[in-house]
Amino acid sequence: DTAVSQTPKYLVTQMGNDKSIKCEQNLGHDTMYWYKQDSKKFLKIMFSYNNKELIINETVPNRFSPKSPDKAHLNLHINSLELGDSAVYFCASSPGTAGANVLTFGAGSRLTVL
Amino acid sequence: ILNVEQSPQSLHVQEGDSTNFTCSFPSSNFYALHWYRWETAKSPEALFVMTLNGDEKKKGRISATLNTKEGYSYLYIKGSQPEDSATYLCASGPLDSSYKLIFGSGTRLLVRP
Question: CB–CB of A42 and B99 under 8 A?
Fold first, then answer.
């Protein structure tokens, strides 16, 4: 039973489309994150939610909108997709703050914008 | 240092060799240091979390040390095996933002049989 699951694993779409990536964790963690793996392979924090409340919103274009219907789910919706949005997006969760607690990552969702 | 930096970028060793890599982080704004192991086509898996200066952690043949005053951590692998081949990521949790981890770009280790 996967601890942090993301869907879809692969997503190929045209510029200008709107798409969503879903994330669910069954670990009972309070905090969930979206990370983007950039072109230099760095993992960059995008958003962090704690108990459905937005905690971190790093300078991400407002075309990206996270939604957390409950603490086990954190979805990422992207409007008007651009070529530069092509990347691997990782969802993660932790039992509390990221400092003292390890993150459990999902397998990643590779988004390709044509 | 404003970012988390890892060196070397990549490392090729022979099976049985011991190896180590470095992670440098801002010591002035430090709360925690994480190490993750990331195999190709998988997700990063946590190895260690350290918070105190002088911390040492060990898991099997892998160990890590932490120096918060000078802002560095070492990861050691004793007697490397081909299955140790992976990218090793470190991440620093800053004091002023407990929900954020800043990742380095990783050290890619390849262990030849």
Answer: no
**What is the DSSP code (8-state) at residue A85?**
G
pLDDT at A80: 96
Q: Decide if A11 contacts A112 (C-beta within 8 A).
A: yes
Round to whole Å and give the CA distance between A68 and A87.
22
Residue in B with minimal Cα distance to A102: B46
Mean local confidence (pLDDT), A79-99: 91
Rounded Cα gap, residues A54 and B17, in angstroms: 46
Query: From CA A55, how far away is CA A16, in angstroms rounded?
Result: 28
Cα B94 to chain center, whole Å?
A: 16
Instruction: Tell me whether residues B43 and A90 touch, CB distance under 8 A.
Output: yes
From the candidates A25, A43, A44, which should be mutated to test the interface with B, based on the most B CB atoms within 10 A? A43
- Is the peptide bond prior to A8 cis by the omega test (within 30 degrees of 0)? yes
Q: CB A98 to CB B93 under 8 A?
A: yes
Mean pLDDT throughout B37-58?
92
pLDDT of residue B2: 60
pLDDT in tens, A9-58: 999 999 999 999 999 999 999 999 999 998 777 899 999 998 888 888 88
Sort out which chain A residues have CB atoms less than 8 A from B42's CB and list them: 107
Give chain A's end-to-end CA distance (angstroms, integer). 33
Residue B103 to residue A103, Cβ atoms within 8 A: no
Percent share of chain B, pLDDT over 90 = 77
What phi and psi, each to the nearest 5 degrees, are found at residue A84? -70, -10
